[in-house]
Design a protein that fits this description.
The protein has helices spanning 25-30, 36-42, 45-55, 66-69, 72-81, 104-114, and strands at residues 4-8, 58-62, 122-125, 139-142. With 152 residues, it is α/β, with parallel strands linked by helices. It has one domain (4-142): Rossmann fold, CATH 3.40.50. The two termini are 22 Å apart.
Length: 152
């Protein structure tokens, strides 16, 4: 495993806000795998490339609210289609400990407590600023413009 951990959001980071407003959200939540290709097509190449660069020295863990809205299989299929799944933590690629899906800081802190992390860097990329919630002072956060997503 790489020394650095990256906790990754999807909406507003990989997929800019509005990327799939034209899709039927209700249908997407009921049968998400049927929408995988449409989501892949709407994911900007610049955002994908920026995450590939981070994947060179980071192990990814998903903290997106997708972890409670769609099956893990959909997340894996979507990320695999972008060739990003290979960067994800092998044992626990999705931080889904809390009961409330919006409690990302709880899941991040719990993940870090359960999985020994001897690395030098912990990075969170999420459009919502959560820095005041972290127990680890070594956590850094990047909060990209959600209309554009993370560009590196």
């Amino acid at each position: 495993m790489k020394d650095n951990i990256l906790f990754l959001d999807l909406d507003g980071v990989l997929l800019p806000f509005g990327s799939y407003d034209d899709l039927d959200t209700r249908a997407m939540l009921q049968k998400p795998l049927e929408f995988k290709d449409a989501l892949v097509e709407r994911t900007p190449k610049e955002n994908i490339d920026a995450l590939h660069k981070l994947g060179e020295d980071h192990t990814f863990v998903l903290i997106s609210t997708w972890r409670y809205l769609v099956p893990d299989e959909m997340i894996k299929e979507y990320m695999s289609a972008l060739d990003l799944w290979k960067y994800f933590h092998k044992e626990r690629p999705i931080a889904n400990f809390s009961i409330q899906y919006a409690d990302k800081p709880v899941d991040i802190n719990r993940w870090l407590a359960e999985y020994e992390h001897g690395g030098t860097g912990i990075l969170v990329i999420d459009d919502r600023d959560m820095t005041h919630h972290f127990k680890h002072s070594t956590i850094k956060q990047i909060a990209p413009d959600p209309k554009v997503g993370y560009l590196g």
